[in-house]
Hints:
CATH architecture of the largest domain: 3-Layer(aba) Sandwich
Pfam families: SBP_bac_11
Largest sheet: 5 strands, mixed
Family: Belongs to the bacterial solute-binding protein ModA family.
Mean pLDDT: 93
Strand order of the largest sheet: 2-1-3-12-4
Signal peptide: 1-18
CATH topology of the largest domain: D-Maltodextrin-Binding Protein, domain 2
Keywords: Metal-binding, Signal
Protein name: Molybdate ABC transporter substrate-binding protein
Number of helices: 11
Number of strands: 12
Number of domains: 2
Strand content: 15-25%
Amino acid sequence: MQPVPWTLALLLLGTALAQSQVRVVAASDLQFALTELARAFEARNPGVRVVLSFGSSGKFYTQLTQGLEADLFFSAEDIYPRLLEERGLTEPGTRRLYAIGRMAIWLDRRLGLRPGPEALRDPRITRLAIANPVHAPYGRAGLTLLEHLGLIRRLPNPPLSDLPRPFPELRWEEIPWEGLTRGVEAYWDVTPLRQGKPRFEFVYGENISQAAQMALTATQAGILALPLVLHESLARPGVYWVAPLEGHLRLEQNFVILRGQARPEVVAFHRFVQSGEGRSILRRYGFLLPGE
């Protein structure tokens, strides 16, 4: 038997190593939950490594349409996996609802405020962290929550065009979020948040994880994802109020295997997320699960 040339051996080794990885791009509200899920999966599947990248769902969608290499995409909203599906960029029949996202108002414990919507009117709350609604579903849900609570009001004539009907009359699902590039105050009246304060401003994170970091280090208040708020990094220094599901844009969080990536280890991780153990981990981090 002829020996395998060393160049071919390295190529085969590299292929084997690549096939033992599961590359995941995911919404940043999954930062803690998916990390634990990946570790649990790796413990049961020696030799398989789950490589995680976190960011905003909208930005990942754009990157995936431009050729970003990944095996699975976890989105904080169903629209982006559906759009990828429509473009033929996913494995047929693999899009699944894995959780319903939940929102919370978080406050620095040192403020001494009772957590809840009225706390945001306090004169000490002069900056509010929120994810950028242009590409972050949790930012969109955050704005719809503030609107539901009467803390912001839609302007009658915002700088938008070609809408099916006046902006104030649009349902949350119909708002052209990706066009809202001028900041919240170009489209909403924030007088209820500004009254009685020397100043007030929104501070935007590129994703919900960045918004949480800004709330923790700079603004002392944020409209954040419950799964992040429950983690000790925010739960210990802060207090929070959980928003009712009907009070904001519904976040039906979907994940999907990307086209050409239905390798055994990828399919196994896809199934593990939906298993009893996977669901238990997601539940522990504050996600509402399908069927519950």
